[in-house]
Amino acid sequence: MRHELVRARAPLRLGFGGGGTDVSPYCDEHGGVVLNATIDLFAHVTIEARTDDQVLLVAADRDQAWRAPATAPLPTDEPLRLLKGVYNRFMAQNGRAIPLTMVSYADCPPGSGLGSSSALVVAMVEGMRRFMGLEMSPQAVAALAYDIERCDLGLAGGTQDQYAAAFGGMNFMRFFEKARVEVEGLTVPEKVLKELEASLVLYFTGVSRESAAIIDEQKANMKSQAPKSLESLHALKAGAFEMRDALVAGDLPRFGALLDAGWLSKKQTAHNISSPEIDKVYEAAKAFGVFGGKVSGAGGGGFMMFLVDPPRREGLKRLLGGFGGVAQGAAFTRTGAESWDVR
User: Fold this and answer.
1) How far apart are CA 9 and CA 121, in angstroms?
2) Between the CA of residue 210 and those of 21, 65, 89, 297, what are the distances in Å?
3) 228 and 264 in contact (C-beta within 8 Å)?
4) How far apart are CA 12 and CA 118, in angstroms?
5) CA distance 247 to 238
6) From the centroid of its chain, how far is CA 110?
7) Cβ proximity of 126 and 10 under 8 Å
8) Which of 37-41, 67-71, 221-225, 324-328 has the lowest mean pLDDT?
9) Residue 45: closest CA among 332, 333, 336, 339
10) What pTM was computed for the model?
């Protein structure tokens, strides 16, 4: 049964270890591993049936709107190609175009490095699933979101973001050829999760970036078997296993040191992952005494994350704020994409 008005949301994520090994061709040839966790920032979507023959797509946080008669497929050029891509896939399955309004927004700027684009696609898939009266598991929601983003729209990227947004929680993920993914929810003692939250500082650099160019260079380096890039990805993968073990054991100083080592490895996979401005902030945080840190996502800008002794967290936030960006904490979430009926 179709619904008239639904809302959905999907959480954004922090990638702690192994990021980049979920990108083809590395995961196809070597198998990728990522440790990530979702946080209390979300991608949101509202979907409402219309009484006319129109499709209205709105990105409220970008102040963009697109309207056309309800036909399928819609052209998947900009603007709002993510919304168009999701609409097209569901209308192809439905067999006819349905007039509707879809409004999206995220709790962070575009290019944040928190997986917001993929979380937005997951939220739309979850919302359309409910709007159309369909039953889908988190695995199916994530797989469809990946297929829309990477195959239908041809957008470069890995696989972790869709699965993090669909499943939620603290997860250890394994990636294989043909986009096969296994998600293992980690059982971490509650006091360790609370201590990790108390230690965590996010810093938005104020620089949004498109991850596609960084990922394309990383993929080219892998295809050419560039030794430094390949060795770095092997190190990132090994580090993800060590980070998992340190986290389960509650050894947060060790976890932070591994976060730091992973960032050094990540910088070797493509030339524009860091920048002089990012390096300056990172070195200041290291001098302050953080356990470790990294740039979230593909790099190049967006959010940085640091772990510090909790009593010193406010001091670190003041230090980072002096560089012109915004420092904040974050809380972990245990649930993934969810939707509900308004009417």
Assistant:
1) 10
2) 19, 21, 24, 11
3) no
4) 9
5) 15
6) 11
7) yes
8) 221-225
9) 339
10) 0.93
Gap between the Cα atoms of 235 and 60, Å rounded: 40
Report the pLDDT value the prediction gives residue 99, as an integer from 0 to 100.
Answer: 97
CA 321 to chain centre: 24
Q: To which residue do tokens 């296993």 refer? A: 241
Quote the CA–CA distance of 13 and 168 in Å, as a whole number: 8
The first and second tokens of residue 172, run together, are 């250890």
DSSP state of 42: E
Supply the DSSP symbol for 310. Answer: G
Question: In whole angstroms, what separates CA 306 from the centre of its chain?
Answer: 17
CA 261 – CA 255 distance, rounded (Å)? 10
- Spot the catalytic one: 22, 61, 152, 161: 161
Mean of the pLDDT values across residues 96-108? 96
CB 296 within 8 A of CB 192: no
Peptide bond into 79 cis (omega under 30): yes
341 is known as an active-site residue: no
Structural element, H or E, at residue 202: strand 200-204
